[in-house]
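Entry 14. Ran structure prediction on the chain below.
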Amino acid sequence: MDDEVCTTHTHVARLRVMKTVSGRYRGIVHVHRIGEDPDSSEEHDTEGDFATDVDARDAARTLACSLLDEQIEAHKKVQGID
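Output, structure tokens:
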């Protein structure tokens, strides 16, 4: 399964779907700041496992959007932007 990438002007989120030992699927999102080593990324798992890789990828996309939105808000706060 191929990775998918989402970006903002400050961060990158890499989405991956892994098949678990039980045969279900889990979405995983790695987030790091642009310019930093991707190996230093924070890993976030979707809540629960899914019956299909499509469902796991959709959940990972939702999680990635949420995590990137948090980073945008944090960046705005640091910059003093409302």
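The first strand starts at residue 4 and ends at 7. Will compare against last week's run tomorrow.
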